[in-house]
């Protein structure tokens, strides 16, 4: 049996298995679907849409090209990617998954990146945003503000480390490294900005409409993956597959003297980081240090749900997914290591001030914390923002279809 036929059989069997599981557990699947939908329209959509629209506009106006010329002397020697990678990196950290992949794919389509450069760039520009790490994980799940510093530092240091390692990927691309020997030139950056703007012949209204349409298309795709993997995770749990597969993880955890109670949460986190992080925080038999290490790994690995989103975005280009997947494993290992190294200086030496937070009742969130306020606002007004944005999207799409039918 050749590889293509084997792949067909595996994919078909997986689809049939999933359909059977949906028929057997309809109520559980429905609840998981609602959970994924709520997460998408309350938090994911309203938090990512502005970043995606602004990014599209910045690319169209040439601002990204301007930043790229300025950052060329920094990004080339360190990561062997063009200066525009600095913009992608910053936007990826500020807005979270999968904005880094979206912008990398867009720049690759415009020819500002070679395929090797794009594969290097996408490997370290996809990460969790600080609001999710501090607000959702540190405060929302662990009720411990100090843990957010450790998780964030471990996450972004491991991200930076992977970027340095990926510079050796595709070593035959000698021309890429030679281009980096330039000095910072504001004049050259302004010239590049002007040329890019002149080259863009779309009116501002058309550019804005395209930005809204493209961004909402991406977010609709993301929403589908969030719901799908929420359902898959729940079905695997109810069918007992999670318990069986987590048995292998117990052996790995035992090698490092970690509690067995972390095996099921780790397996859940490999599929979806939000649910996994929440389950890890509830593993009472594990020490807090071990919980933080496993959470750092889960955040860096990013889960199959987000990886599937990235794979879908990269499929529109010639960028290969495998280097990104390997980078996620490497970042997960580095994140766990950094969390271990940062634990004593950042937590144990200051633990007295945090003991009170560790015994707070479930559901408590500091009322004065601005990140908690942000999540409260998202939960209250996020759905309204999502509905209005979708209405705008339908209006733009209908207008364009009407104009196309008249020509």
UniProtKB/TrEMBL annotation:
The keyword Transmembrane applies. Keywords: Membrane, Transmembrane, Transmembrane helix. It comes from the Bacteria. Residues 44-139, 220-314 form the Nucleoside transporter/FeoB GTPase Gate domain. The chain crosses the membrane at residues 47-71, 78-101, 121-143, 150-169, 211-232, 291-314, 321-341, 374-402. Pfam families: Gate (PF07670). InterPro entries: Gate_dom, Spore_IM_YlbJ. This is Sporulation integral membrane protein YlbJ. The gene is ylbJ.
């Amino acid at each position: 049996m050749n590889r293509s036929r084997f792949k067909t059989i595996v994919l078909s069997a997986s689809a049939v298995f999933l359909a059977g599981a949906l028929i057997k557990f309809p109520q559980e699947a429905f609840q998981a679907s609602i959970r994924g939908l709520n997460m998408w329209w309350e938090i994911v959509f309203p938090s990512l849409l502005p970043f995606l629209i602004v990014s599209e506009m910045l690319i169209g106006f040439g601002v990204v090209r301007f930043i790229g010329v300025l950052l060329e002397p920094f990004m080339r020697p360190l990561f062997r990617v063009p200066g525009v990678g600095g913009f992608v990196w910053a936007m990826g950290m500020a807005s979270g998954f999968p904005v880094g992949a979206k912008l990398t794919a867009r720049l690759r389509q415009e020819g500002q990146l070679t395929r090797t450069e794009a594969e290097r760039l996408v490997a370290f520009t996809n990460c969790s945003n600080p609001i999710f790490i501090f607000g959702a994980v540190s405060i929302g799940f662990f009720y411990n503000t100090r843990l957010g510093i450790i998780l964030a530092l471990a996450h972004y240091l491991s991200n930076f480390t992977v970027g340095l390692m990926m510079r050796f990927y595709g070593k035959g691309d000698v021309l890429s490294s030679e281009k980096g020997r330039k000095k910072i030139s504001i004049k050259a950056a302004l010239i590049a900005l002007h040329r890019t703007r002149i080259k863009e012949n779309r009116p501002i209204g058309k550019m804005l409409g395209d930005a809204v349409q493209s961004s909402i298309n991406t977010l609709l795709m993301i929403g589908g993956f969030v719901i799908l993997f929420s359902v898959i995770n729940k079905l695997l749990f109810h069918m007992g597959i999670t318990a069986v597969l987590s048995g292998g993880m117990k052996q790995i955890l035992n090698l490092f003297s970690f509690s067995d109670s972390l095996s099921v949460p780790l397996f859940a986190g490999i599929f979806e980081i939000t649910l996994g992080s929440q389950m890890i925080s509830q593993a009472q038999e594990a020490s807090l240090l071990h919980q933080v290490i496993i959470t750092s790994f889960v955040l860096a690995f990013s889960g199959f749900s987000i990886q599937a989103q990235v794979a879908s975005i990269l499929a529109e280009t010639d960028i290969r997914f495998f280097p990104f997947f390997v980078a996620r494993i490497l970042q997960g290992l580095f994140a766990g290591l950094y969390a271990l190294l940062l634990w004593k200086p950042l937590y144990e030496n200051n633990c007295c001030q945090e003991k009170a937070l560790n015994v707070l009742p479930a559901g408590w969130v500091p009322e004065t914390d601005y990140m908690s306020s942000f999540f409260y606002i998202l939960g209250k007004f996020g759905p309204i923002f999502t509905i209005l944005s979708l209405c705008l999207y339908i209006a733009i799409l209908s207008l364009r279809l009407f104009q196309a039918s008249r020509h």
